[in-house]
Amino acid sequence: MTKTIGYLGPKGTFTKMAVDSIFNGEDKRDFDTIPACMDAVESGEIDIAVVPLENAIEGTVQLTVDYLVHQVRLPVVAEVVVPIQQHLLVREDFDGGLMDIREVHSHTQAIAQCHQFIHKELANAEVQFASSTAKAAEIISTSDSPIAAIANRMAAKEYGLQIMSENIHDYPNNHTRFVVLTKNEDGISIKHPVKTDRTTLLITLPSDQAGALHQVLSAFAWRKMNLSKIESRPMKTGLGNYFFIIDVDQPYDDVLFPGVEAELQALGCKVTVLGTYPVYQVEM
């Protein structure tokens, strides 16, 4: 049975690139926002959502994490890491220079990834935020004004734009983690080499216990479980109340993880497994 896959659109986004790299032949549907895509899985409108989770330059996509924790608790069943190459796009008939550009449009993450280029090369341009990099490219394609978009090569082709400047992101090692979310992973087939396996945990600490975070980390350390990420986010219940997202670089097992959970629960922590999943790496 064909699965319906949702992604942050329109066509030409990096999310669409991630979807195309691991899924073939499925029905693919674009959404205007990350929450709309996740809501569609929750309501049963689509089967799978692919959303950005973290960028190597700008860090966590906070909208994704907060919505996943506070609004729709969808299991993470896979991750795909995609190299990100940001380009400055203009209309085919644009014949000016960088200093002639009056506006630069893109997603907030892309703007942040290219901050130095914008600061140094686009001094006369006003930054305008779009819902996605591809949406920015679409805006440029329908405008007669001297404006530009920051997006990828796929978006340039999709909307008939020329690449004025290539690879304008501030740091070369630019990658984004995308996660695959679904209520039912039966029938999902990803034909791509697995790079590694990962388990993501959501942990809340007791509010009145000194040294609780140290004790949490010790539960993993003495079992020699490698943590590739630990990040705090507000619980939205008051100042000083946080939850922690922890990535463990191994699949969930029947010995180590139950031991960790029991130890943390004894400390008064609440532990939720957000997913244990394969990680796929896309090469450009």
TrEMBL record:
Q: InterPro entries, per this entry? A: ACT-like_dom_sf, ACT_dom, Chor_mutase/pphenate_deHydtase, Preph_deHydtase, Preph_deHydtase_CS
Instruction: Cite the PROSITE patterns for this sequence.
Output: ACT, PREPHENATE_DEHYDR_1, PREPHENATE_DEHYDR_2, PREPHENATE_DEHYDR_3
**Keyword Amino-acid biosynthesis in annotation:** yes
Looking at the record, the residues that make up the Prephenate dehydratase domain are 4-183
Q: Record's superkingdom?
A: Bacteria
List, for all copies, the residue spans of the domain called ACT.
201-278
Q: Which residues form the signal peptide?
A: none
The record, for Pfam families, names:
ACT, PDT
Q: Which reaction does it catalyse?
A: prephenate + H(+) = 3-phenylpyruvate + CO2 + H2O
Coiled-coil positions? none
Which of UniProt's keywords are assigned here? Answer: Amino-acid biosynthesis, Aromatic amino acid biosynthesis, Lyase, Phenylalanine biosynthesis
- Give the pathway listed in the UniProt entry for this protein: Amino-acid biosynthesis; L-phenylalanine biosynthesis; phenylpyruvate from prephenate: step 1/1
Listed EC numbers: 4.2.1.51
Extract the SUPFAM superfamilies matched here. ACT-like, Periplasmic binding protein-like II
Query: How would you classify this enzyme at the top EC level?
Result: lyase
Q: Can you say what this protein is called?
A: Prephenate dehydratase
- The gene behind this protein is pheA
